[in-house]
Amino acid sequence: MATDKNDTAGENKKVAGLQQHTEDSTGQFLTTNHGLKINDDQNSLKAGNRGPSLLEDFLLREKITHFDHERIPERVVHARGSAAHGVFKLNKDMSEFTRAKFLNDTSLETPVFVRFSTVAGSRGSTDLARDVRGFAVKFYTEEGNFDLVGNNMPVFFIQDAIKFPDLIHAVKPEPHNEIPQAASAHDTFWDFISNTPEAAHMIMWAMSDRALPRSYRMMEGFGVHTFRLVNETGKSVFVKFHWKPLLGVHSVAWDEAQNISGKDPDFHRRDLWDAIEAGDFPQWQFGVQIVPEEDEHKFEFDLLDPTKIIPEELVPVTIIGTMTLNRNPDNFFAETEQVAFHVGHVVPGIDFSNDPLLQGRLFSYTDTQLIRLGGPNFHEIPINRPVVPVHNNQRDGFSRQTINKGKTAHGPNTMSGGCPFQAGKVQGGFTSFPEKIEAHKVRERSQSFFDHFSQATLFLNSQSEPEKNHIIDALSFELGKVETLVIRERMLFLLAQIDDGLAAAVAFAIGMHVPKELAKQLNQNIPADADPEQYRSIVKEGSLQRSEPLSMANTIKDNIRTRKIALLACDGVNDKNLAAVKAAVEAAGGICEVIATKLGFISGMNSDKPIPVNKSLLTTGSVLYDAVYVPGGINSTATLEADPDAIHFLNEAFKHCKAIAADADALQVLRATYFGRKLPESNDEETVLMEGVVVSNNITTLATNFINAVKQHRFWDREKARKVPA
Ligand code: HDE
């Protein structure tokens, strides 16, 4: 278990709370659930040792009954997730804007529990599905729990909660045959999207590499909706919440993602777990975009529309704190599975906007726990308990843990002296922001929500060329899997409202033409969607054309911390060079694994000390690494050069645009690959053969160049020109 570098008083409180419910069987006797010591847990009670089992066997029945009831319903969305404990440290006093105590006192450290997830797949599905990722943070504050239940993308598919069941029914496996699992590439999803023009912006995000994170630790997080902050005097501002990872925002390639799903479906879960166990605690900066109330209507979009971002060029993100995840859960079910988030868990000083998506979520999150966690007492499950006491007149229900004392369970009362009391504002009682509302009761959407395409275009225009190509490829893949032609056609029409070039490229890939008009209008039930006048990107003169933070090309690329490096080696390897590169990579924070043709040990050319092999070519794959190094040594390179799996490993690493390094006398291994033919001729002094392919006979230069290459994460420009059949 990793040592807890950031232990604090606040964190200890939550840890102590959890410990009361923790069970450790070390050195203990086996008992029944009622404390009876068990003498034999491996043989059922029978009439003779070859006879029938007896109904009397209460031990067998208790064990099997409990087992029969072990599963609970999985989350209807975000079923697959992994979580970690940590701490939030405020470094900027925000009392000017909010009275939330955990955002006022910079000496405070607030314990957190964070669950990352995919949306569509079931609990046992793959981590690397093309999907949005959930990013849900529970802050255990001194004023009760605050849950920031966000995603790794800052916008959403729909503008109104009432469409959510349709969206999810469309993306989940199709109801007649439950195919496909954890994938949006099928007819029902694109049928819904092609009838829902407001999804255009989110579709750009979902088809971008943001949907294929390299790691949960390398994702941004967003609160998505506009919320409110309210200060001590009752003044309110609008706010958007952001998480920015210190390791930068990085992704994998789509082909790679599909391979990882086979080689290691737990790739993200394992990555988070391993990093925390190794003491490489992931960290995010917490930031806010603040908009004064009086500026509510100054933007080209509506702040209440969850399909819109506030570009950072218009309102910068102010960093106010850091979150560090420093402890893995002790028990997946008790913590990660039973944690219950709710957008309605707020503290005084944080309030809601009228975003119609947010408003609907305020209903959904308690409701879903009633079925998932079996009743209204899910707040008593240890992971959900606040660090402050709970006092109210709610009582009873399935699995109630609290033994409430006294006669009264009503208020107002005199019998208990009026307890528990309502807390006034000065005593820290929550009061809703008294927003003035004068309105007609209608089922309508505001006209200010109708521009569905401008920010989709802004997103596309802000991408680097490789990122744009990935979006085209993703759309071509997804629509290529759609069998109903009219759905493809409608999608091409909608894509053309974002960008003609995008629509044309996708149309070409799926062998269709972009229609000039829709044969049939879209969703007739929604006037805004049925009106073709709304179908175009309105990029006004003077509007923002590009927004830098939207492209991952502009992310942090200054370190290789926790990057996984494969060292391909066999008997006779140049062990000195292997050790030197390994030491340099590890000193820079990278993680090295020796990969050979078989498990066990390999011998080096310089010493008798056997080198342990971490993985064999059979048990791993290049897709599980960020970069590859091939050390020299004549026997090792001869074996690798002749081994198809080793050559495949290198071809695939090249195809996925990863950094590759080789000793000068291992160049022959690279030459045996498909891309080897394309490598320029070199003398042995050459150091960088092409972008991201580093060769040298000077081991110090090699290590430095290699580490610099790994910092770049990927050489995406390599992709188009140099496709490799791997
Ligand atoms: Fe959720 N969402 N959601 N959602 N959501 C759930 O709650 C829902 C939405 C998000 O790790 C459910 O406990 C509705 C947006 C995350 O446990 C459920 C609507 C965003 C998680 C639910 C939305 C999210 C959930 C399922 C439209 C990003 C996982 C199980 C109005 C800002 C939390 C559960 C975890 C989970 C409903 C839209 C994020 C059914 C009705 C937008 C990260 O209550």
Bound compounds: CIS-heme D hydroxychlorin gamma-spirolactone 17R, 18S
Question: If classified by CATH, what would the architecture of one domain be?
Answer: 3-Layer(aba) Sandwich
CATH class designation of one domain: Alpha Beta
CATH domain fold name of one domain? Rossmann fold
Rg of Cα set: 29 Å
Uncertain residue ranges:
1-7
Protein model, in words:
By secondary structure, the chain is an alpha+beta fold. It has a domain at about 555-720: Class I glutamine amidotransferase (GATase) domain (Rossmann fold). The chain has 20 helices and 19 strands. It has helices at about 10-20, 60-70, 165-170, 185-195, 200-205, 255-265, 265-275, 330-335, 355-370, 455-460, 465-480, 485-500, 500-510, 525-530, 575-585, 635-640, 645-655, 665-670, 700-710, 720, and strands at about 80-90, 110-120, 135-140, 145-150, 220, 225-230, 235-245, 285-290, 320-325, 350, 565-570, 590-595, 600, 610, 615, 625-630, 660-665, 690, 695. Helix 3 (about 165-170) runs antiparallel to helix 4 (about 185-195) and helix 4 crosses helix 12. Bound molecules: CIS-heme D hydroxychlorin gamma-spirolactone 17R, 18S.
